[in-house]
UniProtKB/TrEMBL annotation:
GO terms for biological process: methylation. Keywords: Membrane, Methyltransferase, S-adenosyl-L-methionine, Transferase, Transmembrane, Transmembrane helix. It comes from candidate division WWE3 bacterium RIFOXYC1_FULL_39_7. The keyword rRNA-binding does not apply. GO terms for molecular function: protein-lysine N-methyltransferase activity. CDD domains: AdoMet_MTases. This is Methyltransferase domain-containing protein. The chain crosses the membrane at residues 6-27. The keyword Nucleotide-binding does not apply.
Length: 178
């Protein structure tokens, strides 16, 4: 009897580990980067380059545990995140609720389906092949003057107006196709 219970418990624990791994690292790869959080020093760099504040609206494309959305909301801006992993959506929403941030929202779903036209600032930490696809969405869908802050990877062929280590700041209108 005890062996059966241990076996069932083992199967349950293994399923939770496998499905969490799948949701965090495999599932996102279909449309973007797997979950790797930005370290806190870089979050500060990204916020500084963005010049965010009250009256502005920002979005993190692939918001992970919500750390960038939360930091953006703390500047007084309206902050949104799109996240494809249900586990990370739950986690980030719980943190936002605990911090009572009424100006932070996590959208559950893919950023490929998002209308980005209202955002002043777009944060991202994505892989180069995803960013190459995003270039066209940015040109088609962002308003003139919108600022993109990219962590770790630069946008191929675009000219940043500012950099800080491996954080790159772009303005869409400066990189409009000629
Ligand atoms: C490298 S992590 C960055 C997380 C967070 N932005 C940060 O800097 O800490 C990339 C995130 O994008 C999410 N992701 C990947 N593809 C996505 C998609 N198509 N739509 C929404 N989120 C996506 C992943 O689940 C992951 O949380």
């Amino acid at each position: 009897m005890l062996e059966v219970l241990i076996l069932i418990l083992g199967i349950l624990i293994a399923s939770v580990i496998v499905s969490s791994y799948f949701m965090l690292f495999i599932y996102p790869l279909v449309g973007g980067a797997p979950y790797v959080p930005t370290d806190t020093v870089k979050v500060d760099n990204m916020l500084e380059l963005s010049d965010l504040g009250p009256g502005k609206i920002a979005v993190d494309l692939g918001s992970g545990d919500g750390r960038i959305v939360i930091a953006a909301a703390k500047t007084g801006a309206e902050a949104h995140g799109y996240e494809i992993s249900p586990l990370l959506v739950l986690l980030s929403r719980a943190t936002i609720k605990r911090l009572q941030l009424n100006n932070a929202v996590i959208h559950s779903g893919s950023f490929w389906d998002a209308d980005l036209s209202k955002y002043d600032v777009i944060f991202m930490y994505q892989l180069p092949y995803v960013m190459q696809r995003l270039e066209q969405k940015f040109v088609d869908n962002l308003k003139p003057g919108a600022v993109i802050i990219s962590n770790a990877f630069s946008i191929k062929n675009w000219k940043p107006f500012k950099t800080s280590g491996t954080v790159f700041a772009y303005r869409v209108s400066d990189n409009w196709p000629k």
